[in-house]
Amino acid sequence: MRFVIIGGDAAGMSAASKAKRNDPAIDVIVFEMTQDVSYSACGMPYNIAEPGRDMDDLVVRKAEVFMEKQNIDLRRGHMVTAIDRGAKKVHGKKSDNEPFEVEYDKLLIATGASPRKPDIPGADLPGVLTLKSLEDGRRIKDYMASHPVNKALILGMGYIGLEMAESLTHRNISVHMAKPGPKLLPWTVETLGDMVKDELESKGVTLHFDAQATRIEEISVGYGMKVALSNNEELQCDMIIVGIGIVPNSRMARDAGLELGPSGSIAVDKAMRTSDPDIYAAGDCADAFHVVTGERVWIPLGLRANRAGWAVADHITGEDVEIPGVVGTAVFKVLDLEVARTGLTMKEAEQAGFKPVQNDIKSRSRAHAHPGAERILINMLGDADTGKLLGVHMVGKEGVAHRINAPAVALHAGMTIAEFLQCDTAYAPPFSPVWDPLLIAANELIKKV
Amino acid sequence: MRFVIIGGDAAGMSAASKAKRNDPAIDVIVFEMTQDVSYSACGMPYNIAEPGRDMDDLVVRKAEVFMEKQNIDLRRGHMVTAIDRGAKKVHGKKSDNEPFEVEYDKLLIATGASPRKPDIPGADLPGVLTLKSLEDGRRIKDYMASHPVNKALILGMGYIGLEMAESLTHRNISVHMAKPGPKLLPWTVETLGDMVKDELESKGVTLHFDAQATRIEEISVGYGMKVALSNNEELQCDMIIVGIGIVPNSRMARDAGLELGPSGSIAVDKAMRTSDPDIYAAGDCADAFHVVTGERVWIPLGLRANRAGWAVADHITGEDVEIPGVVGTAVFKVLDLEVARTGLTMKEAEQAGFKPVQNDIKSRSRAHAHPGAERILINMLGDADTGKLLGVHMVGKEGVAHRINAPAVALHAGMTIAEFLQCDTAYAPPFSPVWDPLLIAANELIKKV
Q1: Which site among A79, A85, A219, A406 is 20 to 30 Å from B193 CA-CA?
Q2: Which residue from A40, A332, A342 is facing B367, i.e. has the nearest CB?
Q3: Nearest to B127 by CA among B232, B226, B235, B49
Q4: A27-43, pLDDT tens digit by residue?
Q5: For B195-252, how does the pLDDT look when each residue is reduced to its tens digit (9 = 90+)?
Q6: Would you call B42 and A429 a contact, using CB atoms and an 8 Å cutoff?
Q7: Which residues of B420-432 are buried (b: 16+ CB within 10 A; e: fewer)?
Q8: Is A285 noted as a catalytic residue in this protein?
Q9: Using the beta-carbon criterion (under 8 Å), do B329 and A304 form an inter-chain contact?
Q10: What is the predicted ipTM?
Q11: Of B40, B323, B432, the CB nearest to A429
């Protein structure tokens, strides 16, 4: 059997490796349009924070290992441009423009996603940079090495923007952030957003709300830009990082007539099959089922990509695999804060037909009288009709990142708030109050549902 | 209705407060034999570590608050000595030896547990100290303030012993630990125990295994002791901390003919009722159901005590409450390590009729290439017959304490290893590899079951 994979990052290389482990006789061909495979994209902001670190530190497994040790036919510099479902072929061209075509028995589309760019004058200036691929990371680092960057503007306040704010602050760069909307973390209650806002401002980051960039101009070639914002401010800066979201790379799938899911992602079933049973999709280009709502969602994150890649490999090698989907768990660090979420937002819960109720509490990361305790804020959501736990959002200086996994598991298990409240969580004074902040949140929320 | 409570710490005062909140008309009387109520016993090792801190910092809520603000009839210095179930009365004596008796409609036994003392010559010397009550904590601190303590011996290597090893090391005291058995953390695999052993030894703690104390002698009155160990060693030290376990204070319950549970604890149902429907028991004196095995267990810990106290109050005020029980989650800190467990050990799993399989893995606390990653060791247990997750044991420098709550929730939900493996856990490079160490452990274990 020939298993062809388009895209050589998390989902693609996970699928390639696992397919070969499951059955060494399978002929696995991976087409990757860049020279990079299998790298930790999420590590880029932390790498950029350290001028001395090589971006290639983020490579998880070298191309040579895949090719020589794992016997995977990895073809870099190969861009697939079209899928011919009738002939079961992919067409493309190499970096030297030479065309190629290859037949497949099973095909995996793992083409990832691309960063959005603002559709405004000046968006293509060399100092306006996005961060998605390792090549993007190198471009930012090279730009910073070859230009004096004292002041940077970050467009967007999502997790890429916030992680880059930390990264650049670490490099003593004056950071400004701007977004069209009126608040930070709009998906949760204001208290949590305010805690992140205070942290950013206390570390010198300037936030501009209701401020969409409308025009970027170079001040002198390669040195400094002027950015006009929709709130009539004008900012000068040396570099602009664009973190206004990503879009799934699903054009080829769409052109091949495959069904699409939310936000233009490629719709897949629980075995990662697209609407063509010989074609799978996985990673940032594909959708997933949300375990809490049962509905299709597009939440492109690293764990899902790896897991989906494995599932594809297991499925094509004969395992009757079905993976349940995601519950929307995510975590990021912003300076000294940890921000985590799992499950739904109020809006998502309403749209899914729940009758959501939320409650936010303030607790502490350590026991009563234990030194060094930090504030933890939790917003918890439940369904007034069924008493089910629907989501948890959390911000704090310590004990947030890993704490989110307990409610994530509870969401997978379909627990009610009352059931979650009875869970036997760990207690020792250096790590939590005797009633864990999550239990305190559940206990308060249950009074409302 | 008169609700009488014997014992004024976690379970007793939780029940008293909640009963009054639920129904202010209830007459709540609490008898506490000491002068201390509602304190964080678990905080004592950390308080002892700081000579300048007052032991009373650990009081969570003052007696006056319970009496004046909450209208609870709290009688300190009152020791209840007997329960007359026929007459529905308790008998006792005050600290001035004056007898008292009081009738009850509902009674809660929340008498806690007492530390074991070794039954050897010299165990009653003033420098041989236990740590359970706040009074014990004061006694240790006073002893250290009034005697030169350069070298301490800790008998036992359970969590009290290990927390005290940290505490005394923090005070620059040379610490020796001795236990009768051959290894540290005998409930899990050797790799985890060895990691803790290495940490203790690297910070100067000397461990003596197969070494039961057989005789303690004073060298000169109040200054220095000689301890003979069963391995023929003889140690000199200035203070001995005894941490060889605790026993439930269930004598009164036994004398009153109530049914007992494991280790002589008081047997209770899921509403905390003893075999007498008007008498409840909660806290360290009472047993609980283990959610994984369905069997009675005695795992005296703080969260259960608080939760059981609340359940009693809810039940006597008319709520049809049933709490499922415990899954054996516990965490403690030893110097720079976090040690956590949830669920069963191999021995417990075998005794409960499972066909347990275990597997231990080594992972990291942060992503590939992220600076500052620390080793995390996980031993995970599953049932070969059903594929169910049975337990997780974990040791590491960071990210262990809160990470244990995810499998704890999975145990409450009765998840299989395969289901747990599909949970959507949080990932960001500062906090974990993309495959969380717990998922790596589940993925390896599943190959064995």
Answers
A1: A406
A2: A40
A3: B226
A4: 999 999 999 999 999 99
A5: 999 999 999 999 999 999 999 999 987 679 999 999 999 999 999 999 999 999 999 9
A6: yes
A7: bbbbbbbbbbbbb
A8: no
A9: no
A10: 0.97
A11: B40
